[in-house]
Hints:
The complex is a heterodimer of chains A (227) and B (209).
Chain A: H1 5-22, H2 24-45, H3 49-72, H4 77-81, H5 84-90, H6 95-124, H7 129-156, H8 163-190, H9 196-226
Helix pairs in contact in A: 1-6, 2-3, 2-6, 3-6, 6-7, 6-9, 7-8, 7-9, 8-9
Chain B: H1 2-6, E1 9-18, E2 21-30, E3 35-40, H2 47-54, E4 62-67, H3 73-78, E5 80-83, H4 95-106, H5 112-121, H6 137-145, H7 151-154, E6 158-162, H8 170-185, E7 189-193, E8 204-208
Parallel strand pairs in B: 3-7, 3-8, 5-6, 6-7
Antiparallel strand pairs in B: 1-2, 1-4
Amino acid sequence: MKINFKNILIALIEKEFKSYLRSINNFMNMIVFMIAIIILFPLTVGPSEEKLTLVSNAIVWIALIVSIIPTLDKIYISDFKNGWLEQYYYSPLLLEIIILIKCFVFWFFLIIPLTIFIPIFSILLNIPFLIIFWNIIIFAIGGLGFCLIGSICSSLTLGTKSNNLISPLLILPLAIPIFIFGNGVVEAVKSNYDPLPNLYLLITVCLILLIISPLISAYSIKIALTK
Amino acid sequence: MTSRLKDNMILKNISLTRGLKTIFSSLDIEFLCPGLNIIKGENGSGKTSLLMMISTLLQEDRGTIIRFGKLKKNDWLNEHILIKQNSSLSDELTIEENLKIWCGLKGWDFNTDKIEKSLKNFGILKYKNFLVSECSSGIKKKAELSKLNFDESFKLKCWLLDEPLNHLDENGKLFLKKIMDKFINMNGTILQTSHEKKINHKNFKIIKL
């Protein structure tokens, strides 16, 4: 029978697009959470501008990461519950490619809109424009890395009942390289060094994840489906 | 012998365990191909597990399954449909979108006319724009079974149906029988689990677990 691979891609992207559009409250939750952290932090640090300048970049990063982590481990759970992961398994397209597309769609619909909010929050915390610019780039690239790590953790915990507890524990150690190199870029910019070496290392981490994440995710999804 | 194997589905000396429970041990079945195979058994006797194992969603511990002359796994995945007892439709999407995307994922054409025709045959065309979460279990079941009513579905080798008659009304049952007969006439094989006593089909084999 003739199989049209273009149809598979269109169907997959359409499904993800509609699912995200109809669960927009997830995205709003993330934003509200971020706003809460960014408003509360300066209140607890105190009115000293010096102290705030020291930690302001860290606040934006922590707010972004903490608001993303609860959604990262839910990439596959709804598809697993209502049987769509099985349909992906039966699809003639390789499961690895489907996973890669899902990660890109997740990145496009959750991470990219979040990066739009970075300048707004950064202005609130009095962060210089140059650093805001680099933060957006780092977060857009590192965000893809987070999605790919989320894909691994989400698929590994599919069969477990209490995946809410395990996922953050799995995500954080894997995300450390992204934190280190991302922060390295900002530190280099702050002290007038070349930020590119750290950026290249960040891109390398994401590229490595791009290769290993779909393989591990597909393998663990197959285990979860066939156990 | 080779040509016989090519059209047949045979289980040889199959053992299956799930967790600590042994579901089958040394199970030998030769299915009627083409034809309707009705799998009967008490609750918990492993009917659904058998279908899932044939569909490769469960891995047998021992034995061999000959699926139409040892089809490669990927070819087999493209040559059959498994309709499970629980609905596998996404709650966030409408019935029409669910079927459209399902067809797309199979690599088939998905135009609105085709899906509307299939829904109309099952008498649920008016629910096409309803979100699945708003539909009753009967409508969900009919939407699920509409997957069998596409032209491409009749060209497949095998349908695996897990309790397809659950939640269906009389009209739904009649239409399902009609498409099942059409599929068998087109050299298709159906493996169906059922608790129904009365069977209206002509060419069938009952398999007791």
